[in-house]
Amino acid sequence: GAARARSASPGSPPALDGSFLLSPLGGLMCAQAVLGLLVWSLIAATTYHLHAAYGWVMFVSLFFWILTLLFLVTYLLQLHQKFYMIPWPLVLMICNAVATVLYITAFVTCAAAVQPTSWRQWDYNRRAAASFFACVTMITYGVSTFFSFRAWKGLGSNAATSQVSDHA
């Protein structure tokens, strides 16, 4: 209502939208941020630089962790309403679809590179855990792609689609 109209005006300061966290996309973004942090921090805590495969896993997990945090802040502060000319549901859907595909490759790469005969047992445990969390993160991005597609097509209402009705 009126609070949304005030926060969407160009001169007003950003307002925090706590209801976004309760939406499916908001909850999934929070889960992606936590899971992505687990993936890259577990890999970073190993001697990943000795294995080229883990460089790819680090790139994918760190890149999409940062991107997800940027989207999360954008939606939490309702900045997407200030830049209403950008098709946010479409941008979010494309980002989630690309993240899903690249996380599939990162998960497979990470799982295939885990060596159970490693002489450093803590590296094995961290890499195995990173593989598990990469799989879970991949699933959350896949589910987000589904919800983003629904938001882009206008099938259902959530915090991500509210900008369409505010500026249409």
From TrEMBL:
Forms oligomers. It comes from Motacilla alba. Belongs to the MAL family. It is found in: Apical cell membrane; Myelin membrane. It is a multi-pass membrane protein. One of its GO terms (molecular function) is structural constituent of myelin sheath. One of its GO terms (cellular component) is apical plasma membrane. InterPro entries: MAL (IPR013295), Marvel (IPR008253), MARVEL-CKLF_proteins (IPR050578). Residues 20-153 form the MARVEL domain. The lineage of its organism: Eukaryota, Metazoa, Chordata, Craniata, Vertebrata. The keyword Cell inner membrane does not apply. Keywords: Cell membrane, Membrane, Transmembrane, Transmembrane helix. Its main location: membrane. The keyword Plastid does not apply. This is Plasmolipin. It holds the Pfam family MARVEL. The chain crosses the membrane at residues 20-43, 55-77, 89-114, 129-149. GO terms for biological process: myelination.
